[in-house]
Amino acid sequence: MTETTLADPTALPTAGRSRPQTMNSRALSHQMASFYLVVAAGGALVCLGLVMVASAASVYSQVATGDPYYYGKRQIVFAVLGLGLAWLMSRLSPRVLRGLAWPAVILAFILVILTYTPLGLEVNGNQNWLVFGPTWTQFQPSEFAKLALIVWGAQHLAFKEKKLTDLRQWLSYVIVSLLLIGLVLIHDMGSAVVMTLTFVAILFLAGAPLRLIVALAALGSVAMVGLAVFQANRMGRIIAWLNPSEYDLSYNFQANHGLYALASGGFWGLGLGASKQKWAGLMSTGYTDYIVAIIGEELGLAGTLMVLILFVALAYAGVRVAARSRDSFTRLVVTGVTSWFVIQALVNIAVVFRCLPVL
Question: Is 128 helix (H, G, I), strand (E, B) or coil?
Answer without folding.
Answer: strand
